[in-house]
Structures are given as structure tokens and as C-alpha cells.
Amino acid sequence: TVTKVVVEMPSFKVSLLDYGAxxxxxxxxxxxxxxxxxxxxxxxxxxxxxxxxxxxxxGSFGSAMRVLKEKGFDGPLRKYLSDHKRPFLGICLGMxxxxxxSDEHEEGQDAIPGLGVIPGKVVRFDSTKMTVPHIxxxxxxxxxxxxxxxxxxxxxxxxxVHSYYAPITEENKExxxxxTTYSGEHFISxxxxxxxxxxxxxxxxSGSTGLRVLKGFLEAIENGTLEQxxxxxxxxxxxxxxxxxxxxxxxxxxxxxxDLVVTKGDQYDVRENHKEGVESxxxxxxxxxxPVALARRYYEEGTDEIAFLNITSFRQGVIEDxxxxxxxxxxxxxxxxxxxxxxxxRSYSDPATGQTWSALEVASRYFRAGAxxxxxxxxxxxxxxxxxxxxGKKSGGTSIEMISNVYGVQAVVVxxxxxxxxxxxxxxxxAEHVVVELENGQEGPNGEKLCWFQCTVKxxxxxxxxxxVTVAKTTEKLGAGEIMLNCIDMDGQGNGYDIALMRAVSDxxxxxxxxxxxxxxxxxxxxxxxxxxxxxxxAAGMFHRKExxxxxxxxxxRDHGMPARSSY
Length: 568
Hints:
27% of the residues lie in helices and 24% in strands. It is of the alpha/beta class.
């Protein structure tokens, strides 16, 4: 006898409100991973016809509301949401647009009106009191029981990335599904009233936890239980904590045979040398694996974030760089943590055709392929030099400004590649350079204790007369949302992060800093987190070579009294 297995198909398709900003590919993939088909909303009429709407807002509040109005979506969306009976899931900015207004506007301008479904105004975190944006994995304090969270433990962290938040007020209390605390600020992290649900966190970037949030939402629509919530008693003293992020970097480039591989530099040299047995001549490009397969492995092992750093020399530009775009597209199919991509993101012209692409257009290509953040290197140093030369005036035309104005500051990472310049005294360096005292055990080769950190461009091949602290501060003013801080001297050495550099930069800016270059043991992570203000630490070679497991690093961090995300 043959037993027939009947697979129950979903009774509806998910209508996706993709207004054209940022990475919604991951949302599509997360919905597909739960077994549902997607229909794109392209006309206002489709909003009224929809069975369920998912609105993944990415970018700035003003640009989102402007596009909704231009497309004629705002009126039908308000009507769809008016009685709270029709299933809706807003994500991040998709939640914020439900409020009456937002302060995310140019200085001196009026608050921007929202959809006005929930009472209250979205406001900015105070950067004098905390690092802004709020980027990383944080917890949730439950205010209601909901079928949306049926498959998720209250202890599981979710991924946040935002500079603005919705404060809790008497008028919006009945909407609150969960709240979260960040550096003393208590804000709304999820809402639900009837069938209208929205989250400040990103389910599609919250790993297995986020996939199960989506599962709970879609399953509850399927079985008719979505509106069955129950209020919970909330401890007014309850707090959540932003965890220390572990980021894995994959340096990707073509090897001598034209294959795209993950490699690793030794003070930025990616070719094998005497350490690998090369006695003479030029060694081959170190091949540590295929990018998508390695990224998937790190996702399964619990990395909090993945950075693809394209270190190929671009002759024609990233628009023609189909292999890297394909890497992102493939990776985002089954990797549900944040993906950063760097390399070649700049304005350029094709000499053969004369066609010009802006850095914004290049970044947009990467976002649509699955990137959540783009990393800018040489372009950021040039922008800093121009900003200083202009007396601190923004031109509006730098890569940082163009991308952050459309996608939000949280989408722009500036990668700084400095090297040490040793000095005998602080007076030996030019007045504009910040001289730091090196950590005990991290002195120069001749015992030098003082240095400034000179920025380089073109993959470390060209030094510029500007220091790392200055570039970090100026790029923050231009609209960067995060700093990835490398150190050529420490790269690939496995002797720990440059503590003096990490401390100097993380103390000088109010945006998050990711420590990079030099990790070789779990102690190096604990060291940089305990001695500096960095919010994340990145490593590559030690993970690629399986010398240390990601969970061993997190266990060491927890053992030293600091929070790290658990894999569920």
C-alpha cells in the first residue's frame, strides 16, 4: 500500500508593500522560508484587495512617507488599517510610519506626518547619553501574550538598527506588545491591536528567532487566532540589554584561476608567504573556502553579523561585478542575520561608454541584492579631506551623504584602514593628529609607546596625511552610522586588537564602532569589550581556520560578566 502525504497549502498569498528602498530581499526570503508566496503591491487598488500586508520599511521616515504619497498608497493604507481587523505586519520603519509624526527631518523643519494609526511621535535617541544608532541584538519585555510570539521564548534577543524610537505614553499603552530598554531609554519594540502588528526589530534579520516570529504571525492568520491577545503584568523595573556583537568578515576576491574565494590578509597581503612554506617568488592567493558556503556555516554557528569585503581591484566597477551580487543574492536566501558588503562602492564612469553611475546607484544595487549595510573605505577618507578643506561644509555630493540621505545613517559603515606612525613625543606629530599611548604589551617593534594612526586608501597601499580619529569624527558628521576600525599593523597577527586605537576612536564618536584586525583568541574579544567602548568585534582567519569556535568566544564574554547572544 502507498500512503499519501497531504501537504496543506497556505490559504493566502502575502502582499508585500515594497516601496523601493533598501534590502527587502531578506523579507521575501524569510516569508518564503515559512512556505508562503508573495504578491507585490504595485497599485493602490491592491491594498484593499490584500488578505495580509507586510510593510518592511527601510531608510528614512520622510522618504518613506513621500513615496507612499507619490504612489497613492497612503490613503488606502490608512483605510486598510482603520478598524484593526485586517492582518498587517510593519517592520522597523514600517512600524514607525504607523505613528502620528516623526522628528526624523532636517534641523529647523516641522515634524513629518505619519499614517496616524497609533498616537504619539517618533523621536531621536539622545546621542549625548548613548551610542546612536541603536544597532545590534537586544531583548524584549512582554506586555501581552500573542500568537505572534507563540514559538519564541521571552529570553531570545532580536536584531535592531534604528536612530529613532517610539516612546511609551498613556495614549499608546493599549498598543504595546513588547518594549525594550537601551542605555536607560524605554521604548516600544512591538505593537499589536487586533490584527495590526508591527515590530521595531527586524524579524528577517533575527535568525531563527525572527523566522519563528513570522511563522507565528502567518500561522495565526491561517487559523483565525491573530487577534487573541491577553494583557500581562509588566515589572516597571524590567530592563533589557544590548549584547556584544560578534561579526565574521569574509574577504572575497578572485584567485589566480578566476574563482571567487574567501581569503585572508597578513598585514593586508593576501598571498601565501614563508609562513605557508613559500620559499621564493609570489605565492598564490590564500583560498579559505567558497563565500556562500562559509557564510552559511557561520550563520549556523551563531555569528551575529556577516561582512563580505570585496577586495578585488575594480577595473570597470561594481555594476558589472555580477559574481559578488550573486554571492549576496544566494547568501540572503538562507542566512537571516545582517549582511554588510564593502568594496568598490563609489561613483565612477565607464570609459568605454561614458556612462556614469553614482555611489548611490551602486549601493542600491547591493541593497537590492541582499545587503543591509554598505561599507565605504577610500571614498570616506577623501570625503573627510574635502570636508576639512571646506571649513566643515557638507557638499551633499559625497557617497556617505547620498546613501545615508536615502537609506538612513544605519545603512552606511565607514571602514578605516590606519597604520601606526611612531613618535618620541606628542609634539613630534602635527597638531591635527591625535597621538595615543599604546597599551602595555602592544608597543612598537623598538618599544615605542606613542603613535598616531595614519589613514590609508587603496587597500592600504597609499598613506594619507589624516588620522583615524579625524576621519571617524568627520564621517560621523557626514552621515555614517557605524565605524569598522581596522589596523594594518595588527592584521593577521593574532596578537589582539589595537586597544589604544579602539579606545581613541570609540571615545571620540557617538556612533557604534566595530573593532577589527588582530583577534586570535576568545580573550582578545573580552579584552577589547572591557577596555574600550566598541560595540562589536570582528574576526576572520581564526574562524576560517577553525582555531576558535564562535560559541567559545561568546561563552568567554559571558563568563566575564558581559552579555552575548545565545543561539536558539
